[in-house]
Amino acid sequence: MLFPFLPVSYSAKLRLAVVVLVGAASACNQSAKTETATTTTTAQASPAASLDKPAGWWKETVVYQLYPRSFQDSNGDGVGDLKGIISRLDYLKSLGVGTVWLNPIYASPNDDNGYDISDYRQIMPEFGTMADFDALLKGMHARGIKLVMDLVVNHSSDEHAWFTSARASRTSPYRDYYYWWPAEKGTPPARFSTFDVKNNAWQYDAPTKSYYLHYFSKKQPDLNWNNPKLRQEVYNIMRFWADKGIDGFRMDAFQFVAKDPTFPPMPGLTQANYTNAYNHGPHLHDYLKEINQQVLSHYNLMTVAEGAGRNPTEAMLFVDPARKELDMTYHFEGVGVGSGADTYKLTALKRVFTKWDSAFALKGWQAIDLGNHDQPRMVSKFGDDRPAFRAPSAKLLNTFILTMRGTPYCYNGDELGMTNSPFNGIAEYRDVAARNAYALLQEQRGNEAAFFHSLARFSRDNSRTPFQWNASANAGFTTGTPWIKVNPNYVTVNEASEDKDSTSVLNHFRRAIAVRKQHKVLVYGHYQLLDAANPHIYAYTRTLGSEKALVVLNFSSAPQRWPLPAGLTPSGTPWLNNYPAAPSGPALALQPWQAVVYHLR
Do 367 and 329 meet the contact criterion of CB atoms below 8 Å apart? Predict the structure, then answer.
């Protein structure tokens, strides 16, 4: 969860993520009492659960993040759903992606778009039924696509049965599933909440005269991972979905789960530093080892967890094979470049990606991304979304993601070059973080013009507008009223028109994935940065044995000339090029936002 539009920009570099791949399958037992008491659906092995997953498959896959609320509505209620996704599975297969990461679809009152879960074993009615989910998983596996589910276990919804019991009595058996501070002890130690209107992470609860902790919204009370019973509940939930045949979990906000229950003083917490203070708390590695031993080692799962470390050295503690914890790390320092500002420096972007590649050059593995559901649209932040440059810059950014060492993570709509959307006033925004930040701004009589300028550039809602399928009403997303307004540029930027155009962003994305699959040097090859100080050109080589590739990216809206370094000689037709003509000769004449991938002699 990243919020760069807030008054002080979020320190994205402090948040990382980890991916795990572990062992063979086994059965589970179900014991999450409060959920199973109200849940009639039991886990059943998927007919497609035996999808072939050779060792290391997560290194060669391309991950496609799918935001279900905004992907495809099947029943006209204005909300994307599982049947809508099923109707678009052939489209996903046509992209060439190997794995889908699905944002939360569990039962939820929807305070934070599904990241507030009231029942981890039920599907949100807006999204469909468990039978719809089973059909979705079967359809994905039939097309050779793996499914990673979002698992939110730093907090639950305040409407979860555990919390409704816990808040009713201090003697509830579920009281210690959460963090409480009795009022008779006075005001609890200060903790910062980025979602709270007053940035206060403690909420007074009258029934038991106590405060409960919520790092996010007051409707998202934090789970107490110090309690072994709570941990077993989580592990049983993981087994439930693993037994259905899913291929992994993305564990949301996992860097925050480890907390000192004595709550020692943390003076001076702000928007800029709270993530550093909360990250990597006590016993985090113990929890990860326990998850691995009790759940992951019994399944062949890929697990993605946010925030495992605050720098490359700390991140390596999670992915060093000798430690037998996790396998893959991804960082948010890259998407954090330029957050809170109108521009960014390419040299900073190069420095970040080169630093992280170097840290994992000899061991470990990382993911590569420039966007997700918590970020603005990639092309609007790192490219140029003006009509003349939107397509070439979107192609360049996708080329970058798909030619770096690591597993590419591509957010839905970025394959079309979808852009930030114009919102008119706070009423058109749906994000709880944006709305609460605006309420705080009004209370403090802050600068509304500056706030809305930042919100327009960085709001999470920019990436959550409906997928643009065609030029019909509501971009073909719904026959009803969409839950959030459609970007008006859908008339020209949409899947139907791009699918027919061989030169489109969409078809370039497909070609780039095909090139990556064909040339393993783009997956495993050594990365070497060239011309680090150049403010416009990002160039690097990839080398694997005798095979060598050169990637040259013009990160500017003006033509640039780039002299080829001595000893680098392109051979034959470029593997990938986002313009009709490829530059050649001792100095490459690059068009605005041109991206070329050469095979080197």
Answer: yes
